[in-house]
Design goal:
single chain, about 280 residues, alpha/beta, 12 helices, about 50% helix, globular, binds ligand C2E, binds calcium ion, EAL domain-containing protein
Length: about 280
Amino acid sequence: AKAKGRNTFHFYSQELNAAANERLFIENELRTGIREGQFRVYYQPQVDCRNNQVVGYEALIRWFHPNEGMIPPTKFIPIAEATGLIVELGAWILQEACEFAARLASQDLKNNISINLSARQFKDANLVSTLDKIIKQTGVEPKRLHLELTESMLMGHVEAAILQLHQLKALGVSISIDDFGTGYSSLSYLKRFPVDILKVDRSFVKDIPQDSNDMEITAAIIAMAQKLKLNVVAEGVETIEQIEFLQNNNCYIVQGYYYSKPIPEDELPALYEQLNSL
Ligand code: C2E
Ligand code: CA
Ligand code: CA
Ligand code: CA
């Protein structure tokens, strides 16, 4: 038993070590990557399923590491967050996404751009002035910008969060609640926050139409959001059955692989062509 215990401990400590090493590796590489410009912002369309028109895009960061290849955001965003590097990286993402939005506007495309904010970034006292500067410098219409936050980011210091949201909204941007339904807040609680859009989480959408519970929940979220005069976007939409279900339940703006994965800007012409042929 003793030997087994030691082996088990050995096994765990090796695993912990590997995790700590990977974390340290990513932290170091993040600094280099930011300095050397290894990041790109990809864009996933949000489509009005009634006419297959793009109404907006979500900006999603991609890291192309010279040796490791593409490192997914789920692997490095939490580390960027824990180390505070997300503030610098996040400001770069805001800048990129606003330049993209301004280019679309210059082609007369009235598309919204959704940008993910991390918890650290949202709490940062300089966020409002950073964003204000980027808006003025890029000339983007602030009403085109949708900032995506998660419920948990609002729950800790409620009064501070409400104040920060009001300051952001004073710039003219909209606030979107990401992954809605996966956190602990109720819709009535959420109403205390000046939010504009709910994104129904992929976990509710992915098993439609097989899972009747998920269908009930999704329909209920959409119905309540409408009563509260919030716009709804469904994410992770992969099938025509899911689109039909959402449409029948009055949710028309959808985002997911059914229409497109996140793509770099130079693939937009191919996207338009594909949507035209639907
Ligand atoms: P999220 O904000 O919930 O983003 C949606 C994720 O779902 C994206 O993964 C997207 O590629 C993926 N997705 C979209 N449609 C489908 C679909 O139909 N099926 C499936 N299976 N997946 C779909 P991604 O790009 O890997 O990002 C993962 C998470 O990393 C994001 O979740 C977000 O929390 C974070 N993230 C990504 N980019 C940024 C960023 O620029 N800033 C911050 N702070 N976080 C980011
Ligand atoms: Ca998001
Ligand atoms: Ca989401
Ligand atoms: Ca998510």
